[in-house]
Amino acid sequence: MKKTLQRPQVPVIGVSHPVVSPIMPSVVYASESPDALDAQYDGRAQGYTYAREGHPNADLLARRIDAMEGLEGGIVLGSGMAAVTAVLMGLCRAGDHVLGGNQLYGRSMRLMGEELPRLGIATTLADPTDVAAMAAALRPETKLVLIEVVSNPTLRIADLDGIAALCAERGVLLAVDNTFTTPSAIRPAEHGADIVLHSVTKLLAGHSDVTLGWVAARDPGIAERMRVFAVTTGLTASPFDCWLAERGLVSFDLRFARTQETAERLAAHLAGQQGVTRVLYPTRPDHPDAARAQGLLRGQGCNMVSFEIEGGRAAANAFARAAEGIAFAPTLGDVGTTLSHPASSSHRALSPEARAANGISEGFFRVSVGLEEPQALLAVFDRGLEAARAAAD
Ligand SMILES: *Cc1c(COP(=O)(O)O)cnc(C)c1O
Predict the structure, then answer these.
(1) What is the mean pLDDT of the chain?
(2) Whole-prediction pTM value?
(3) Alpha helices in 113-251 (DSSP H)
(4) CA 286, CA 39: separation in Å to the nearest integer?
(5) Low-confidence ranges of the chain (pLDDT < 70)
(6) CA 341 to CA 313: how far, in whole Å?
């Protein structure tokens, strides 16, 4: 397991020092003189000026996530969507084209489908498991490709290496949203991604009590462009949120290992049950991208399991009601297991036919596995399935 922890930079108070990062909520920072301020702005001296431009808690958190992803100079922003926005709106201009994976996070799709075109930036979506489809969708004016390694909610695995080679050949920037996979499973920069981003809200912070994002680029010029855009548009984060996320990050490796182990067990358990028509998990041999998952994620999975039950909406309602103790909530990466039902939430705007084309039926659920005792968790799923079988319409 990678070492993700460094001791925080903490002040010495007398002859001892705190072992936890202090929270530094100051919005403004006083400098000694106009010359000293000049030196700060020119980059000859280090110092903060105003919290929207940067503050110690954001930097402490950013340096930790940088180390996990093997990148430098990342920035922490107010949400995962702020990070997606810094990439797409900070780097593209009118006349550019952006290509996205066709199963991106819902709001990323909204940003691509509604906001970017309004500003004269053309966008299209293509299947990232199929590098030929991605290649066919590139245009001469394509500036950037945005993908996620594991798709939501069907957990398909993108051809990251193929897409990275394609982008390098065509001179197109590749941005990877690594929220689902996390640096414990894959470090996209090592596969050729130019830009890596996270919704820190999810697995990294891990407690569903803070909304944050992080983004970094291999090229310092690109990183600086995103930083300036974020500072100007006010996408930056509050010190307290950064401090909370740093606290959550301390246990990230342990949480990810444990939830992954339980997720794999849950997938195996569900696969054998009457009334379960499909189970999707990256390390299962029947996963549609099993070989690619094995190679890219080095035998690891993730904390997400998707599955389908028979019996339509009635069975789905019965399952959600009977699976007591599991929050029916549209998020992931919390310490507790959460359940989501894409047909009534993330994919509700699609027609039933369009949902079916995405492999999403009324009986389709996505589970974000938490830290519960595994045997007890399996028992809750058994109760849910029993109720679903009784209610099937
Ligand atoms: C949640 C999520 C986001 C957006 O993050 P917020 O912190 O909610 O803004 C982006 N990408 C993925 C894959 C996510 O799961």
Answers:
(1) 94
(2) 0.95
(3) 116-118, 131-137, 160-170, 182-185, 220-233, 239-249
(4) 60
(5) 1-9, 393
(6) 10
- Classify burial at 241, counting beta carbons within 10 Å of its beta carbon; exposed 0-12, middle 13-18, buried 19 or more: buried
Q: Which residue's C-alpha comes closest to atom 12 of ligand 1? A: 105
What's the length of the chain?
393
Q: Is the CB of 199 under 6 A from ligand 1?
A: yes
Rounded alpha-carbon distances, angstroms, from residue 238 to 59, 72, 227, 235: 11, 21, 15, 10
CB of 214 closer than 6 angstroms to any ligand 1 atom: no
| 193: nearest Cα among 113, 271, 87 | 87
pLDDT for 1 = 41
DSSP 1-43: ------------BTTB--SSPPP---SB---S-HHHHHHHHTT
| 287 close to ligand 1 (CB < 6 Angstrom) | no
Q: Which amino acid belongs to residue 152? A: N
> What is the residue type of 74?
G
Let me know: does 121 contact 97? Beta carbons within 8 Å. Answer: yes
Task: Establish whether residue 98 lines the binding site of ligand 1, counting it when its CB lies within 6 angstroms of any ligand atom.
Answer: no
Q: Can you tell me which atom of ligand 1 is nearest the CA of 331?
A: 1
The residue to which tokens 């990232």 are assigned:
128
pLDDT digits (tens, 9 = 90+) for 129-177: 999 999 999 999 999 999 999 998 999 999 999 999 999 999 999 999 9
Cβ-based neighbours of 393, under 8 Å, separated by 6 or more = 311, 312, 313, 314, 315
From the list 156, 202, 255, 366, the catalytic residue is 202
| Cβ–ligand 1 contact at 177 (below 6 Å) | yes
CB 248 within 8 A of CB 68: no
Write down the residue that tokens 């509604």 correspond to. Answer: 114
Residue 159 one-letter amino acid: D
77-123 pLDDT, tens digit per residue, is 999 999 999 999 999 999 999 999 999 999 999 999 999 999 999 99
Residue having the nearest C-alpha atom to atom 6 of ligand 1: 80
> Does 202 qualify as catalytic in the annotation?
yes
